[in-house]
Backbone:
């Protein structure tokens, strides 16, 4: 009797459990897993040059063709350079501001608010601001004595750098907030003890603060690189991938293939590549960094 | 005796001098610190400052060299232009609607899923939890091709449904809330069961209120994500009726090339809601942004 009731309750609990997962699973299947898996399939078909014509099965030909093209290696290079320009600089600047703002000074709260303020800007807001400030007609650079012919955003040498500066500024608030909370999580006694030991500020930072901060830095590097590899809005608003493809990051190439060229097959192959790159990046960083990160006990 | 006294005086004298020197050094150090902090603050704030100034100038003043760095005669007309002809009012409403739908949806679906993972026993629980975590490995950018087709086929192109429905569930949120629910003492569940509380009542009355910090963190996190979205709204909207603020700003810039001041006013309008929320909810915001960043 009791056993039957027990099993009934178990079954009812299981039913409730599944029911509670249904809304999430429904969204995930339709809008995450299905479109994700369909990319691999779409990559086998060449999109016809005119809509209405049938798609042609080409097997791995399209993968081979696109992934060995110079356009693809250019996009990969640009994306990697963009990540290298934005992630380390962003983290270091955030850390410097956080260390400076982590002092007992009167009015420090104001500085903290200012340093976190760019969190309120979106990619679009930051890009439109910088795009206008870098504009040769209304911008400020000519006045500062910096030549703007061709304009910075149309100059193959500087366009990506300008996009990177915009991105670093937009993310600075977030970086500052993350680094500050990491610093505040370090117990004061540990810092004080090392002060008593007579360690100077630089060795103290290298031997005490930085190791204790490493989980935060680790998190920032992983999340920051993934975000950098998915950057899109600043490219769309500032350079549209130009000049001479110098800012054509992977995500922008997917967008151009899909909307501009109406080429689903190509967009699918590029999406598969973006996924694999992100995956490799995440796993590699986890592996490399986890070994060096000091997680305390 | 005498030597000892005199030695005592010398020592305290030396102490006083050392203390004095330290005080001077500290004061110099403080001046240096404030100078450095202020210089950095000016650099960080400058783009925002110049945007506000330029939104209050006429286009010819903006183009003037040397630039006008303070609006002595502010012209507020650009705000009216951006708000009305520039449709920023419509874009703002759209962003509020879409963001509200996404935040509310994510909180509901994540709470339900997290509760099931934390409090209920059922076959395949571990596997399903891994399925939830696996969604974190798929960047949204790689799903847009088919999602666009799906949304068009459902008749949701250029609608609020098309903008919001793909984001109504969150693996990260479910994970975050599950961790919070696991912190609810088991005794409470037993006591509630004795009081005749079913699972739903226990969830709403006990578990959710106890997990409030995590809930707030999730709300902030999904709010920022939804509010700042760019790629998806760009692809699934085609006119001002459904364009969000971020995409609206792109449109505004394209249509007001001759009036940079209107673009700058649009930027201020687009940034203001978040800036106000940042000031009011600074603490929750920090917690939401750093969820997972710091151990413990």
Residues:
């Amino acid at each position: 009797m009791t056993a039957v009731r027990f099993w009934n309750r178990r079954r009812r609990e299981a039913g409730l459990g599944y029911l509670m997962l249904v809304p999430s699973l429904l969204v995930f299947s339709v809008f995450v897993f299905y479109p994700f898996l369909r990319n691999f399939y779409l990559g086998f078909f060449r999109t016809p040059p005119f809509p209405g014509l049938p798609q042609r099965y080409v097997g791995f030909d399209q993968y081979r063709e696109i992934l060995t093209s110079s356009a693809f290696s250019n996009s990969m290079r640009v994306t990697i350079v963009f990540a290298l320009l934005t992630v380390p600089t962003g983290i270091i600047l955030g850390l410097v501001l956080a260390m400076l703002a982590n002092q007992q000074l009167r009015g420090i709260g104001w500085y903290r608010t200012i340093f976190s303020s760019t969190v309120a800007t979106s990619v679009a807001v930051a890009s439109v601001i910088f795009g206008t400030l870098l504009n040769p007609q209304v911008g400020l650079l000519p006045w500062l004595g910096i030549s703007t012919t061709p304009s910075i955003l149309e100059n193959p040498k500087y366009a990506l750098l300008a996009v990177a500066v915009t991105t670093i500024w937009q993310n600075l608030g977030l970086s500052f907030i993350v680094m500050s909370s990491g610093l505040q999580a370090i117990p004061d006694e540990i810092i004080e003890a090392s002060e008593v030991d007579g360690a100077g500020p630089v060795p103290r930072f290298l031997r005490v603060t930085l190791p204790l901060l490493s989980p935060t830095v680790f998190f920032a590097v992983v999340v920051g690189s993934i975000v950098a590899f998915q950057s899109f809005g600043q490219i769309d608003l500032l350079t549209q991938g130009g000049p001479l493809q110098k800012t054509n990051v992977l995500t922008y190439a997917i967008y151009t293939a899909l909307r501009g060229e109406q080429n689903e097959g190509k967009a699918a192959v590029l999406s598969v590549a973006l996924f694999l790159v992100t995956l490799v990046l995440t796993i590699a960083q986890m592996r490399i960094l986890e070994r060096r990160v000091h997680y305390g006990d | 005796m005498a030597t000892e006294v005199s030695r005592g005086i010398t020592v305290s004298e030396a102490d006083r001098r050392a203390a004095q020197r330290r005080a001077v050094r500290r004061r110099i150090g403080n001046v240096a610190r404030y100078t450095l902090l202020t210089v950095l603050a000016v650099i960080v704030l400058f783009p925002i400052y110049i945007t506000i100034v330029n939104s209050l100038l006429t286009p010819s003043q903006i183009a003037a060299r040397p630039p006008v760095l303070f609006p002595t005669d502010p012209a507020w007309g650009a705000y009216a232009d951006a708000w009305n002809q520039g449709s920023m009012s419509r874009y703002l409403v759209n962003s509020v609607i879409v963001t509200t739908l996404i935040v509310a949806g994510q909180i509901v679906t994540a709470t339900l899923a997290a509760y099931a993972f934390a409090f209920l026993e059922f076959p395949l629980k571990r596997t399903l939890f891994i399925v939830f975590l696996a969604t974190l490995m798929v960047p949204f950018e790689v799903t847009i091709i088919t999602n666009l087709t799906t949304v068009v086929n459902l008749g949701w192109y250029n609608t609020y449904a098309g903008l919001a429905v793909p984001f109504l569930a969150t693996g990260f949120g479910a994970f975050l809330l599950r961790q919070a629910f696991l912190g609810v003492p088991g005794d409470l569940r037993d006591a509630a069961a004795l009081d005749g509380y079913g699972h739903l009542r226990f969830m709403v009355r006990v578990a959710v209120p106890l997990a409030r910090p995590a809930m707030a963190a999730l709300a902030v996190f999904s709010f920022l994500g939804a509010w700042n979205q760019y790629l998806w709204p760009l692809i699934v909207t085609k006119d001002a009726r459904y364009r969000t603020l971020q995409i609206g700003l792109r449109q505004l810039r394209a249509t007001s090339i001759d009036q940079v001041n209107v673009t700058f006013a649009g930027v201020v309008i687009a940034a203001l809601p978040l800036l106000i929320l940042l000031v009011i909810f600074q603490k929750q915001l920090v917690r939401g942004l750093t969820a997972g960043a710091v151990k413990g």
